[in-house]
Design a protein that fits this description.
- This protein has 11 helices and 13 strands.
- A 7-stranded parallel beta sheet has the order 3-2-1-4-5-6-11, sandwiched between helices. Strands 7-10 form a two-stranded parallel sheet. Strands 8-13 form a two-stranded parallel sheet.
- It starts with 8 loop residues before the first strand and ends with a helix.
- It has helices at residues 18-30, 69-75, 91-96, 99-119, 154-173, 195-205, 224-237, 254-264, 290-296, 305-318, 320-337, and strands at 9-13, 35-40, 59-63, 81-84, 122-128, 177-182, 185-186, 210-212, 218-220, 222-223, 243-246, 251-253, 273-275.
- Bound molecules: nicotinamide-adenine-dinucleotide (NAD) and 2'deoxy-thymidine-5'-diphospho-alpha-D-glucose (DAU).
């Protein structure tokens, strides 16, 4: 077990997005002594409101692009670590227009790595289980840190590229870095383009939910707060140069999740539309997080999916002012794609 590392000031890239802003909230709650600088470009998905109530309380926001070298040279030196959440993160968008994915996920991570190398700052790189590709529905196997990289979508392949860059910078330049690959998150502050929140907000708007393909694709759901606690453990106690998978044994197929949502919201179970499938749609994700549990003693605290889903639905009911401005444009874009 390496000596624990306790950063006093961290940069959180992408801290106005879904997972990044929940991580910032988690750090403020669990480690209020730590100062946080959020670096975020505020793209269509980044929202200042996600952390507005924390600003000034040891959290500051710098609006900028991770591809901007000069900005990185100004921000990074006065910090002990960078936790890197920034990404273009939505598969359907990556299929329609891959360019920003290559720029932000691959080139942006390269620029950040170079800045961390110039200033000798510790990096934790947040990645996804999608880099490992999919499993068949009847495959008893789950993904481990030793599984081969087999990304399917432009999103997954640019995340895989970023992981490879981090591995190379760690080995060749001795950059103090770790990587985590997590499964599908759910919780508050998730953009309405993503599966669970699209369906919940569709029901709240009186629209019918939309299910891709045959609805049997399996995702391995984890509450976003459990992702945050795992990232903190890896940042502070993980072995440098290592990859840790994060998952909470939350495998469910999409049609089951959609029916859970409809039941929880008092709608008939078949009150949804089947739509065309996503090209290259990964069939099943399933994470084996034994290494994280064994080495760092991490355990999820929100393993009851029904309870987590009910709380998430309630959050969206109460925070219509937060999601409403993005809803019409999101659905207009989906309509153009036939989804
Ligand atoms: P998100 O799309 O909600 O947020 C991304 C954030 O990055 C936004 O605030 C956006 O404004 C910002 N951003 C985008 N391009 C930028 C740039 N060039 N410079 C600065 N800021 C920029 O994404 P998310 O769902 O919160 O995912 C965050 C990270 O977690 C990603 O790296 C993703 O791969 C990983 N991840 C997400 C999930 C999930 O289920 N959401 C699961 C596993 C891993
Ligand atoms: O596995 C981790 C990944 O999970 C993250 O790296 C990504 O950033 C995150 O977006 C998520 O990717 P998915 O493609 O799995 O998530 P999405 O919410 O887009 O879709 C989840 C599943 O639901 C997928 O099988 C497609 C399906 N789906 C999605 C939408 C938006 C539908 O059936 N209907 C929909 O309307």
């Amino acid at each position: 077990m390496p000596e624990a590392f306790f950063p006093e000031r961290i940069v959180v890239t992408g801290g106005c997005g879904f997972v990044g802003s929940n991580f910032v909230r988690w750090v403020v709650r669990e480690h209020p002594e730590v100062g946080v600088t959020v670096l975020d470009k505020l793209t269509y998905v980044g929202n200042r409101e996600n952390i507005a109530d924390l600003l000034g309380r040891r959290v500051e926001l710098l609006v900028g692009d991770i591809c901007d070298e000069e900005l990185l040279d100004r921000v990074i030196p006065c910090h002990d670590a960078v936790v890197h959440f920034v990404a273009e993160s939505h598969n359907d968008r990556s299929i329609a227009d891959p360019d920003p994915f290559v720029q932000t996920n691959a080139v942006g991570t390269y620029r950040l790595l170079e800045a961390c190398r110039r200033h000798d700052v510790r990096l934790h790189h947040v990645s996804t289980d999608e880099v490992y590709g999919d499993l068949a529905l009847d495959d008893p196997a789950r993904i481990t840190e030793e599984s081969p990289y087999r990304p399917s979508s432009p999103y997954a392949s640019t995340k895989a590229s970023s992981d490879m860059l981090v591995r190379a910078w760690s080995r060749t330049y001795g950059l103090r870095a770790t990587i985590s690959n997590c499964s599908n998150n759910y919780g508050p502050y998730q953009h309405v383009e993503k599966f669970i929140l699209r369906q919940v907000t569709n029901v709240l708007c009186g629209r019918r939910p939309r299910l891709y393909g045959d609805g049997r694709n399996v995702r391995d759901w984890i509450h976003v707060d459990d992702h945050s606690s795992a990232v903190w453990e890896i940042l502070t106690r993980g072995r440098l140069g290592e990859t840790y998978l994060i998952g909470a044994n939350g495998e469910r197929d999409n049609v089951t999740v959609l029916r859970d949502i409809l039941r929880a919201m008092g709608r008939p179970e078949d009150d949804f539309d089947w739509v065309r499938d996503r090209p290259g749609h990964d069939r099943r994700y399933a994470i084996d997080a034994s290494k994280l549990r064994r080495e760092l003693g991490w355990e999820p605290r929100h393993a009851d999916f029904a309870k987590g889903l009910a709380a998430t639905i309630e959050w969206y009911r109460r925070n219509e002012a937060w999601w409403r401005p993005a809803k019409e444009a999101t659905e207009a874009r989906y309509a153009e794609l036939g989804l």
